[in-house]
Give the backbone structure.
Amino acid sequence: MSAPLFVVGHRKPDTDSSTSAVAYARFLNTSGRYQENAIPVVPGELTPQAEWVFKYANVDVPERVETLAPRVRDVARLSPDFLKNSDRLRDAVDMLIRTGHSMLPIVDEQHRLCGVFSNREDAG
């Protein structure tokens, strides 16, 4: 099963941003566009007005999250694409194009990072 997809408004959740998060999460879940389960969240305390709207509409208040900062486990892949330092340049370019990544790690025989291959100007 895929990790959930959090739908969030802005940092100080008012009525507009919190109800929009709920509506958009429902849209994503019913559209079938994503495999992930879209979950509306708010990154802070709701205003009294927003709480009233949810209560009046008989809709569950979005879950509150403390931080939206990603953790390594949230973004890491279990089997990342990588290059070996013995790979040819042509093979590296082919892998970069095939995977759609903007950069790939280069590892040695012990799978230790020894460089990065990239098509990005800021990677140098």
Observations:
- The two ends are 37 Å apart (CA to CA).
- DSSP finds four helices and six strands in the chain.
- Helices lie at 15-31, 48-57, 72-75, 89-99.
